[in-house]
From TrEMBL:
Belongs to the CarA family. The lineage of its organism: Eukaryota, Viridiplantae, Chlorophyta, Mamiellophyceae, Mamiellales. This is Carbamoyl phosphate synthase arginine-specific small chain. NCBIfam families: CPSaseIIsmall, PRK12838.1. Heterodimer composed of 2 chains; the small (or glutamine) chain promotes the hydrolysis of glutamine to ammonia, which is used by the large (or ammonia) chain to synthesize carbamoyl phosphate. It catalyses: L-glutamine + H2O = L-glutamate + NH4(+); hydrogencarbonate + L-glutamine + 2 ATP + H2O = carbamoyl phosphate + L-glutamate + 2 ADP + phosphate + 2 H(+).
Length: 340
C-alpha cells in the first residue's frame, strides 16, 4: 500500500504502465521527501481502488492531484486481478489508456502494437544534462545500518553515471560516507576519470541495455582502473562491458518480494524492477555469478574480481522495501577503501 510514490518517480519506469496488484492505492498520499527523482516518469498507472482517504503526517498532496500535476494518466476501478492473470500467462503486454473515445478498437490495438521497448535508448531521455553534486541530507532518524551510522562523511568520492538514477541510491551511498558527483549518461570515460573518483557507480535506468552502446564503451574504458558498482541497468551495461549479452525476459521482475540467493548461500528478499537480464552463458570465465533470482534462476549479481567490479540486478537501495541487500553498498565502500 506504500511504495507507489517511489515507483511513480523511479526513472526506470519511464514510458511504462504499472498495474498495481495491491487493491488499495493512494492511502498515504504523496510527500516531498520520498521522491526517487524530480518528476513522475511512469507512463500510466492502473489501480483497483483509489483510496479516498489520505492519512499520513508527511503527505502534502493526494495521489490524483500529483498525477494531474505531472500529466501522468491514471485509471481506477479496473479488474486488476483479471489483468494480472492474463499477464501471468502472456508476460508483459503493450497497452493504451486513452480519453479519446472517438478512437476505434482497431486504432487503439494498432497504437499498442506500434510501441516497443526493444532497441530504444531511453536513458538519454531521463539522464541529467549537466554534472552536479549530491547534497541532500541523509536523514539520520531513518538510518538502520550501524556501518552507515559509523562511517566518516565525505571520505570517498563516487562518480555516478546517471542512467536515470534513483535518489535513494545516492542517499545510501552518502549514508555510507560517500561524496557523490552525478554525471550525464553520455559523459566520456576520460572526463569521469579526470574527476579522480575512488569508485564509479553505473546506475539503474529505463529500457534496453543493447540500445546504449556508448554507455558500454565508457564502462569498458573505466573497468580495471577503479572499483565499479552496477545497479540494474548498470549491472546490464557492465555485463555487456565484460563481454556478455543481455536479453528480454518474458516475465520482467517487479515488486518487493523476490528471493535472491547471494554468495554466502543466504537468501535476500529483494525489490526488483527490470525487463532485461544478463545471460550468464555468454560471460567470460573470470566473471562469477554471485546472486541468483530464485523465482526463475536468472542472473541477479556478478563480480569480476580482477577488474574490481561488482553488480546487482535488483535494488539494494529499495525504499520502501526490504533492506536485506543494503550490505552491497558497504561491500562497494570496502572495495573503494581497499583500492585507495
Ligand atoms: N531498474 C532498472 O535499471 C531497469 C533496467 C533495464 N532498463 C530493464 O528494464 O531491464
Amino acid at each position: 500500500m506504500s511504495g507507489y510514490q517511489e515507483i511513480l518517480t523511479d526513472p526506470s519506469y519511464a514510458g511504462q504502465f504499472v498495474l498495481f496488484t495491491c487493491p488499495e492505492i493512494g492511502n498515504v498520499g504523496i510527500n516531498v521527501e520520498d521522491m526517487e527523482s524530480t518528476k513522475a516518469h511512469m507512463g500510466g498507472m492502473l489501480v483497483r481502488h483509489l483510496s479516498l482517504n489520505v492519512s499520513n503526517y508527511r503527505s502534502s498532496q493526494s495521489l490524483p492531484e500529483y498525477l494531474e500535476q505531472q500529466n501522468v494518466i491514471g485509471i481506477s476501478d479496473v479488474d486488476t486481478r483479471a489483468i494480472t492473470r492474463r499477464l501471468r500467462d502472456t508476460g508483459c503486454l503493450n497497452g493504451v489508456i486513452t480519453t479519446e473515445s472517438d478512437k476505434t478498437d482497431e486504432e487503439l490495438v494498432a497504437m499498442a502494437r506500434d510501441w516497443t521497448i526493444v532497441g530504444k535508448d531511453m536513458i538519454s531521455t531521463v539522464s541529467c544534462s549537466e554534472p552536479y553534486e549530491w547534497t541532500d541530507p541523509t536523514g539520520e532518524e531513518w538510518e538502520w545500518a550501524a556501518a552507515a551510522k559509523a562511517s566518516k562523511k565525505g571520505s570517498l568520492h563516487v562518480v555516478a553515471y546517471d542512467f536515470g538514477v534513483k535518489h535513494n541510491i545516492m542517499r545510501r551511498l552518502a549514508a555510507f560516507g560517500c561524496r557523490i558527483t552525478v554525471v550525464p549518461a553520455t559523459m566520456p570515460a576520460a572526463e569521469v576519470l579526470a574527476l579522480k573518483p575512488d569508485g564509479v557507480l553505473f546506475s539503474n535506468g529505463p529500457g534496453d541495455p543493447s540500445a546504449v552502446p556508448y554507455a558500454v564503451d565508457n564502462a569498458k574504458e573505466i573497468l580495471g582502473k577503479l572499483p565499479v558498482f552496477g545497479i540494474c541497468m548498470g549491472h546490464q551495461v557492465l555485463g555487456q562491458a565484460f563481454g556478455g549479452e543481455t536479453f528480454k525476459l518474458k516475465f520482467g521482475h517487479h515488486g518487493g518480494n523476490h528471493p535472491v540467493r547471494g554468495p554466502t548461500g543466504a537468501v535476500e528478499i529483494s525489490s526488483q524492477n527490470h525487463n532485461f537480464a544478463v545471460d550468464p552463458k555468454t560471460l567470460p570465465a573470470d566473471v562469477e555469478v554471485t546472486h541468483v533470482n530464485l523465482n526463475d534462476g536468472t542472473c541477479a549479481g556478478m563480480i569480476y574480481p580482477a577488474l574490481k567490479a561488482m553488480t546487482i540486478q535488483y535494488h539494494p537501495e529499495a525504499s520502501p522495501g526490504p533492506h536485506d541487500s543494503d550490505g552491497s553498498f558497504e561491500t562497494f565502500v570496502e572495495m573503494m577503501k581497499a583500492g585507495k
